[in-house]
Amino acid sequence: MKYLLFFCLLLLQLQLTTTAQDLSRVRQTVQQLASPQLHGRGYAFKGDSLAAEFLIKQYAAIGLKPLSSGFFQPFTLPINILDNRLSLKVEGKPLKPGTDFIAHGATGAGQGEGKVYEINTLLLKDVDAAQNFLTTNLRNKVLVVRQRHFNDLLNLPELFQMQLQQIEAVVVLQPGPKLMGTVRGQQLPFPVLEVLEKSWPAKARKVEYTVDARLEPAYRSQNVIGYVPGSVKPDSFVVITAHYDHLGHQGKDLYFPGAHDNASGTALLLELAHWYAQPQNRPDYSIAFMAFAGEEAGLVGSKHYTENPLFPLGQIKFLLNLDLMSTGEEGLMVVNGSVYPRQFALLQQLNQRHQWLPQIKSRGKAANSDHYYFSEKGVPAFFFYTLGGTTTEYHHPNDKPETLPFTKLKEVFSLITAFVKAL
Description:
Layout: H1 2-20, H2 23-33, H3 47-62, E1 72-81, E2 86-90, E3 93-94, E4 101-103, E5 110-118, H4 127-134, E6 141-146, H5 147-154, H6 158-164, E7 169-174, E8 192-196, E9 206-211, E10 214-228, E11 233-243, E12 248-250, E13 254-256, H7 259-277, E14 285-292, H8 300-307, E15 316-322, E16 332-335, H9 341-354, E17 360-363, H10 372-376, E18 381-386, H11 409-422
Parallel strand pairs: 5-6, 6-7, 7-8, 11-14, 11-15, 15-18, 16-17
Antiparallel strand pairs: 1-10, 2-3, 2-9, 4-8, 5-9, 10-14, 12-13, 16-18
Helix pairs in contact: 1-7, 2-7, 9-11
């Protein structure tokens, strides 16, 4: 009887471990988050809000508790939305959105055609070239500039900016090999289209374009936050974060699925929530799960949280931010690893003992994900992202669920739970 009981308990533990790291469930979560129905979790067609609704259903099913009146923490942000038409023809030949060209995140709206005017970049350095530019008639012209000079162009003195008001549009030639989309909270006064150099004809003379864009100065979005109460110190928190938003649409037909960035991190956050919500895994400290919106627009959601916390930031023992979590065959990068050497050494010791990952690398302070504003306010925080594999589709329409290997997801899961326990 004693051995039968032991065997049953062992089977139960194995089942719980499998459930907590259910790869098929992870893939299903990523598939849903990256689906066309959620519109790339961006701001066109309210993709972020549709994704947030999906997440609160997951939180409720898991059994997380809200920290306020509900799981949502609303906030507003300025955002440039491209949700209708997007097209580009060069010499009468249509270019393919997402493959040959995309819109710049801060593009203005416009429709028309114009003659190609390749800018003489000497104007950025030479007084005579600059003077010639100021006297050039730019009406009905589409300005063509190399990517490396585009920001220089936008930063020219006011007299030049007034001259640029005449142009029809700007084409920014990108060296490639692929295009990377962005979202922005501002809008330029003219359409800006980014085109791969290899897709641009050598002697292009005429361009036709259509870009629909509108700047929403106070778009309403939301963070999604829940927690598992601690059994010993419920007023002290470990926080797990991931951003669930992505780039969304450029035109009706082109969207960025964002499977690796960051449906993968959001799915891992949910798996950790599943684990800690089970009574036998209830932690000593409370664990809050914070899914942030607005990361792609400049860490807006996490910044809003640090300015409007639902409990004092001083009660956070440690924060782990998960972003780009679908690979790992080359190990794990820890941003802020050198800022918190004692906790990084603990990670290294755990990994060396269990041999979960081939390496754990350390970086310093960086404002590149949602950990940043927390650590700026004194909250100890790491940002994890996996290394190796299919990360080349970053911010690209081909960042699709079927491309993700999840090579070391279970090992990263084990490392995180062991680290939280060791804290």
